[in-house]
Structure formats: C-alpha cells, structure tokens
Amino acid sequence: MKTPVFVFDSLNLVRGGLTKAVITRANMLTNEFDEVIFLTLRFQSNFHEIVNKLYDSGQLNKKIKVFNLFDDVMTNKLLPDRRIKKRKPVYQVQEKGFDIFKDKRDVPPSYRYYKNGLYIKYKRFNNKNKLVFIDYMTEGRNRYRREEFDLYGNLVVARHMDTRTNKPSLERYLDAKGKCYLSVWIDSEGNPYRTLLLNNKQNKEFKSFFNFKADWINKKMEDITNPVLISDSRKTDELVTSIEGKKIAVLHNNHYKKPYDGSNGFKETWDYFLNNINLFNQVVFLTDEQREDIKKEIGEKSNYIVIPHAAAPVSNYNTNYDPLLAVSVARYTGQKRLNEAIKAFSYVVKELPNAEYHIYGFGEQKNSLQKLIGELGLEDNVKLKGFTTNPTEVYQKACCSILTSAYEGFGMVITESLAAGTPVVSFDVKYGPKDIIRDGVDGFVISQRNKEIMADKIIELMTNQSLRQQLAKNSKDVLERFSSSDYSKHWVNIIKTV
User: Fold this and answer.
1) Could you tell me if 23 and 107 lie in one domain?
2) Which residues have a Cβ under 8 Å from the Cβ of 166 and sit 6 or more positions away?
3) Is the peptide bond before 80 cis (omega within 30 degrees of 0)?
C-alpha cells in the first residue's frame, strides 16, 4: 500500500484556492489509502490550533496526519500556559516609566513607547488584546530585534535585525522553557542558510536551511510505508526531488511571465521545475491548454497527465437569487485584478443604478480596492465582504459571478459557481476559463480584456431572466464534465501505479 505525502508550505483556516484544492484532494485520498500525510514547512505559532479547528470543523479528515517542521523538532512543546496571568507588564499596553502613543493607522491597535524622548519599542496586539510582537529600537530609531509571541504569551521567535536593511539576519526559535531549539542565519537577500538544531545532546549543524528541511523529511520517511511525495508548489520542487522515493508534481498556476500569455518567456520561479521535469514520476496538469503550452516549449514527456479539479456537488439548490447582484470570490491581490472588475461594474451601474457587486475575499489590496470604490462613487453598489467559508451560498444568491484574473491555474471558483447554478462572466486568461465555461451556454468568455464588453454581458444577464435561467440550467452539466468520481479514479490510479 502506498502512502500519499504532501510536502506543503502550510495549512490555514483562511486560505486561497491552492490550499483548498490540496485539502480537497487529501480528504478524497483517505477513502483509498490507510494513511495520508502532510509535512508542512512554515513556522506557525498556532499550528496545533489551526489543525484542530480544521479537524473539528470537518474541513480536514481526521485520518490525515499533519506534521510541522518547527513543531516536530521542538524539544519542549509549547502548550497552553496558565502563567499568562502572572506575566510582567511587558505583555500589557501600559508600562510604567514610558510615554505611550497609540498608532491610529493600525487595526488591531499598536503602540509606540518612548523614554526621555527616545523611541524604545513598538508593540502590536491582536483583536483580543493579546500581544503579537515587540520591536526594539536603537537610539537612531533602527529596529534591532523583534520578539514574537504565541496565543498564550510564550515568546516563540526572536528575529535579530540588520539595522542597515531592517531585515532579519538571525532567527532564533524558542520552546516552552525559553530555550532556543533552532537558530537560522539569513543572508542579505532574505534567504535562510546556516542552521543549528539545538536538541539537547543531539545538536546538529547544517550548511543550509534547505539541507535541514531535507534531513527532517528523510527522517519522517523512515516511518512511512511506500511514500509518494507530492509537490503542489514550485517552492517545494527542489526539496521533493532531493528525497528518495516516488514523486508527483502538480501545476496549479500559470508558468509565464507578465503578460502571462507566453509572449515573454517563463517565470524564474519555474526554472528548476522545467529544467528537472524528468525527476518527477508524474506531472499533473489541470488543463489541456497548459499541457499543450509546456509540450510546445520543452517537448512531450511520458510522465504528463491532465487531471482537472472536480466540481463539488451542491446538496441544496436555491433558485431564489437577486437578479441585480453579481459576485466574486477572490483574494484581494494583484493577480485577481479586482480593480478591473470594479471598473467594469461602474458601467453596469450607469445602466442599472440598483445593481450590486459583492466581493468575498481577503488580502493586501483591501484598502486600495476600497479607495477605488470611493473614487468611482460606488459605495452603495460595490461591497468588500471579507472571507467566506460558504461560497456556494454566495453564488446561489447572485445573478452571475465575475472573474477578471490576470492568470489562473484552473479557476476553481468557475466550477464552484457553475455547480451552484450561477453563470460566470470571465476574461479569457491562461488557464481555465475556456476549458470550463462554454461561451453562451453556461456563461461568457471575453477574448479581449474589455471592461465595457464585460459590463454588457453582465447587464444582459441581469435584464434577460430567461437567458440567465437557461444558462443556469446548463451550468449544472459541470458536475458531469468535471466529476468527482473521475477525479478520484485518476488520482488513486496514479498514486497506486507510480
């Protein structure tokens, strides 16, 4: 019996499409394999809380075992600390002897601490008034150390800063007793290199952080029966190929540089994968179009296979939708180009003043998007709704959904919308829209990035309800075209036969 092993950055409660897709696949594989394992690589002070919430909410099958690099090598595990009530004032906002100023720009709140006119430190708290980190300053107002705390008030990371660049040059990870169990040096480009594992009598030095991660994975492999390692990100390709065993790479994203259409070559982050594609036993594409593009560039390989994401069945169809509502479920990032969607919707509002556009997501562009909404005078029409755990409900309330991404790997939001009975209006980008949407049958694919044409299609759906209902009826075919049974069969087969 084989054991699927996902080598992955991190799991989280608020997550994008990649993490959602990987969790969906892992849950499916528990039906066929005795063990399914995640090896996660990012430091998360609340790692156990995240995993337990994923289990308890049913989002992650409890048969799946999740190990984290930092948590696994820690000597004294970080458990809930009852001593938090006895902590010194450093864990509180008020501190005797300091002049304290609240930073009005930050939400949650932050505070700057002065003594005799000198800026000494900066504290950030979360929404529950728990201390998140403290920055310490030199007399020249340069940050020389950051201390980060977990949910229980334990100091978990000390980042020692290069005062010239304001970036970490050394990171020390601390256990429940305050002992450093891992020390990582950082170069001027922000890359970790020399690493010290300080594990009582088994101290070990690594020339690179990469070697440390590989050593950890190799040790985990010793306890796993016939592991099949899966790399779902180009960040983990080199690490996965350095490990003995069977290997699968999955392509979740567009591999081209801007403008993402093949006219400007490959992204540098894809160099290792494209130059070492033969090191993988299987390479899984999500779309036929991307497979053909790679084939044209580097030739056909015997390890290529296309397995699109499955469309998730909907348990309850709600046909009571708002004919003047459009929605998007997308991260607030540059890739999603939500600014174009908002501008396109401004044309919709000129024709239909009561039309609304709700955007569900999270990300660093939230403030800039809100500013754009204000500049266009769309505050009553366009709403940033935040992250949703129930996209099906969001889609079923709407007349249509909108996709304006610069690029995608597949576009799970398209199959989710169609499965919910909601037509999609999308720009034609690599990859996904024209593989999934049947233009004029269950949505519209706009070949040029023309916001006025997009607006016309949205208006057409909002004003022609017989058309909208016909497209909605056709959209449910997505469950057969991208069936869960086919998806499961293909994935189980390649893991068993790899």
Assistant:
1) no
2) 142, 143
3) no
C-alpha distances in Å from residue 19, one per residue of 14, 15, 240, 447: 10, 6, 18, 29
Domain assignment present for residue 206? The answer is no
Confidence of residue 430 (pLDDT cuts 50, 70, 90): very high
Which SS3 state, helix, strand or coil, does residue 378 take? coil
Question: Are 221 and 301 members of one domain?
Answer: yes
228 vs 77: which has the higher pLDDT? 228
Reply yes or no on whether the pLDDT at 382 is more than 70. Answer: yes
Does residue 384 share a domain with residue 443? Answer: yes
Query: Which domain range does residue 225 map to?
Result: 3-70+215-306
Nearest to 245 by CA among 260, 257, 229: 229
Phi, psi of 17 (to 5 degrees): -65, -35
CA-closest candidate to residue 132, choices 113, 147, 112:
147
**Cα–Cα distance measured from residue 163 to residue 143, given in angstroms and rounded to the nearest whole number:** 6
Residues pairing with 185 in the sheet: 170
Co-location of 369 and 475 in the same domain:
yes
Rounded CA gap, 271 and 348, in Å? Answer: 42
Cβ-based neighbour number of residue 365 at 10 Å: 21
Beta strands in 294-338 (DSSP E): 304-306, 322-329
- Read off the CATH number of the domain in which 134 is found: 3.90.930
Which residue is it, tokens 């993402």?
Answer: 260
Among 331, 354, 336, residue whose Cα is nearest residue 462 = 354
State the pLDDT at residue 147.
97
Tokens (6 digits) for 381: 């029409």
Which CATH number characterizes residue 398's domain? 3.40.50.2000
- CA dist 36 and 29 (Å) reads 7
Least confident segment among 273-277, 376-380, 446-450? 446-450
User: Residue range 432-446: average pLDDT?
Assistant: 96
Question: What is the tens place of the pLDDT at every residue in 281-328?
Answer: 999 999 999 999 999 999 999 999 999 999 988 887 777 899 999 999
Strand partners, 403: 426
